[in-house]
Amino acid sequence: MPIRKKIQIINILIILPSILFLTITLYNMTLNQVMERALRSSDHKLELITNTINTLFNNIENYSKLAIINKPYQSVLNSDGTDPQSLEDIQLMYVGLTSLVESSPYIDSVVIQSIQGNKTYYTNNLTNVTENNLSIYPGEQLIKAKGSAVWIETFQSPFLVNAQHINLLAVGRRIINISNGIPLGYIYINMDESKLSKLYGNDEEGISSKLMIINTNGTIISSNDPGLLQTTLDTEKLQMIFSNDNSSQIFDNGKEQTIISSKVLSKKDWRIVYEVPSKALMKDQWKITLFILGYGALGLLFALVLSIVFSNWITKPIVRLSRAMMAVGNGKLDTRSPITSKDEVGQLAYKFNDMVGEIQGLMDTVNQEEKQKRSLELRLMYSQIKPHFLYNTLETIRSMALMTKAHDISKVVKALGDFYRMSLNKGQELIPVIQEKKHLESYLYIQTIRYSHIDYIIDFDSQIENCRIPNMLLQPLVENSIQHGLREKQTGALCEISGFIETKDSVDVVCFVIKDNGKGMNEELLANIWHREQNQLDLSSFGIRNIQERIQLRYGPGYGISISSVIGSGVEVQLRIPLAFDKKGIPERSVKSS
């Protein structure tokens, strides 16, 4: 990666987290502020509604107090209704009930019932009022209250109100004779729940909030959503509401976050609850979020532009120096880097130019010395080997032997010439198996002339004749077999050399076996072949070690020599190398190195 890219990436890695951190911090700060503002707004709204409802409830209770000391009410409930004065009081009572309804738009109707329950008086908007219907009011609670107001939770009227059944809330009191304190009856002031819910006010368009009055059990007795009446809030919501009085909190049910505010009503163990989705109160948050994201994006873009500009300014001299170095590395030693500044890069360019000049001079000197050295090495090698002189000399000796009719000497000299000719092999490292076979035949012929009691058998599979193997691979092994196994055997000495294709781990390899029937070796001698120190090796073990190293350096540790022997029964050497053919159109077998 170019250094310019690295600088740009480093700048991005430094700037990007900073801008992201700043953006996230600003977003969280504004989110917390908006959330706090939403909680305060919810608290403020609920505070206003609570004060309004408390005022209304206080007014309704005050109306009930005035009613229980009303003289016509006292007179009618004390009399049996037969005297003319009672009839006049009854008329005054109905007038008072009507005026009581008209005194507040939230009072729907009024019912007065005698203590025995046999007399009932009510406003003219009620019909089908019977003693059984009035059992819905809790008489026992009114008695226990001893004249105090008792609020009755929402119920559906069993009687008709303006010819229909509606949901009512009521406040009841026991009417007591102001003269002697004897209970005379009960008064029930009914409130239409739908009118009460209008006190909650309307939210802004698009905000679906819930305003509710709940009892101690969490049952909803009034709500701006009629469908919630008489239902019960979730247990988790109730625990949160009752554990924190007069406070707003965020409730998360896993699907939606809502802000829940609750306050206790002053005249009852009821609570008013305001629940609104938090996203509705924070609908302007997306504008702030877009502004913050835009600020972060612009900041990042500005930082990237500055990073590119400054990285180019810094790295331009380095790039020029790098290109000059690449050109020099490709062999253009005449290249020089321009020097445009005196800073560190300028100093590097100056030293580079100076160094390239020195290298160019040294290269010329080294090339001249290398040419002279190679010339001397070639001359030395030719002077040491002189193969044609050797071949010509041997051919001269052979001709002289034929002239004197010494045919055996001629054959030996020819075999010796063939042996050395194939050994040198014009410097080739790999030869065909058939050539190695001729090499072995020349060597073994000479040895059988020298040791008449030694015989040999060479049996190579015809499939491997064109297989390529390293030069002089088998001759040192055959020489060890003769020198250390067969030379001292008096009669019947035999050396067998065979070659064939063998499958090893699903891979075809060439296997050569050199076997003799000499004196053999024990386990200690076999072990010493591989474990003696270099300076302790004799010539036989050195040849074996040399061949082993040649094979493993070329083909890997999975190939090489293995030796087995039995005292008195000879030695068997097995040599394995990969199967590889020459380029004469012979089909190749699969060859894999271990």
From TrEMBL:
Pfam families to which the protein is assigned, alphabetical: HAMP, HATPase_c, His_kinase
Primary subcellular site in the record, as a coarse category: membrane
Membrane topology: Multi-pass membrane protein
Keyword Lipid metabolism: no
UniProt-listed PROSITE patterns: HAMP
Molecular function as annotated in GO: kinase activity
Annotated compartments: Cell membrane
CDD domains: HAMP
Domain of life: Bacteria
Record field: transmembrane: 6-27, 288-314
Keywords: Cell membrane, Kinase, Membrane, Phosphoprotein, Transferase, Transmembrane, Transmembrane helix
Residue ranges constituting the HAMP domain according to the UniProt record: 312-364
Gene3D superfamilies named among the record's database cross-references: 6.10.340.10, Histidine kinase-like ATPase, C-terminal domain, PAS domain
PANTHER family for the chain: SENSOR HISTIDINE KINASE YPDA
Name of protein: Sensor histidine kinase
Species this chain originates from: Paenibacillus baimaensis
